[in-house]
Amino acid sequence: MMNKSNPLRTALLSNAAFSVLSATVFLIAANPLAKLMHLPYPLVLQVIGGGLVVFVGLLLWVAKHQRPFWVRTVIIMDATWVVGSAVVLVWDPVGFSIWGIGLILGIALVVAGLALWQWRALN
């Protein structure tokens, strides 16, 4: 029987829900989103969306089994996303629009919050 008050499972499943939402938007609306962001290659968003689908599978498995090594791996992956987002914003290889900057920053902040939540629930 699943314990519904498990904070680690809740954090991981929240990460999965946000990742599913993000993947869906990136896969379905890559072209208009890329235009809004001033990103010349919508394929970048589609590849990220596909990667997020795989990540969701990992999150669901980790939420079910809650092995500390894999929880830490997810936290490190989230932290890497946040650092990578900061690098992309500083580097700004394509001249992102204010909407692009806001989207990258907003997603990074959500992912940072999810990583912190998962870390606190693990410890």
In short:
The chain is mostly helical and 123 residues long.
What are the SSEs and their pairings?
Elements: H1 7-28, H2 30-37, H3 42-65, H4 68-91, H5 98-122
Word description of this protein:
The protein has one domain. The chain has about 120 residues and is mainly alpha-helical. The chain is about 85% helix and about 0% strand. The mean pLDDT is about 95.
Biggest sheet: strands, sense, closure?
Answer: none
Distance between the termini: 23 Å
Domain tally: 1
Radius of gyration from CA coordinates: 15 Å
Taking all residues together, what is the mean pLDDT? 96
Total of helices: 5
Secondary-structure-based class equals mainly alpha
Overview features:
123 residues, mainly alpha, 84% helix, 0% strand
